[in-house]
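So, can you check?
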Amino acid sequence: MNEIKKVDFDTKDKFYNYLNIKLMGLVSSEEDVLANLSNASAFFNLLLDNINWVGFYLYKNDELVLGPFQGKPACTHIEMGKGVCGTTAKSLETQLVPDVHEFPGHIACDSASQSEIVIPLVQNGKLVGVLDIDSPIKNRFDEEDQIGLEKAVETLNKYVNISQIL
């Protein structure tokens, strides 16, 4: 495997292109879902600046259950429609939250989190989980981050069959 290095880019577009190319290399040749999600969370943690938690919640038995992540211990179960992750899972739409304290029903697993982005993982038309990324600063994520991270989720969806472990 090629070593993954943190590289500075002059635009977010270039950064996310690099991130997606490296992510594809990381997950495309591995068939084990848990290994891929574990490496993906470590990968995002390595490359993304100003984050304090990144990981996956998987959709099981009509709720989200904690999957591979990097950061402090987190909430294990999240009800559909509850908090940012549950809202994302229910709506199947990315939630870009500049200030988590203004999000109705925010679930505070880590009191240091100030902003958050959560992207749904949908395979074969069905929810399989969400990618959750928290930051200790407000307004950490913008539309460029959303576009870049949604492309990363597309890469994961292409190469990682999450539904096989659900």
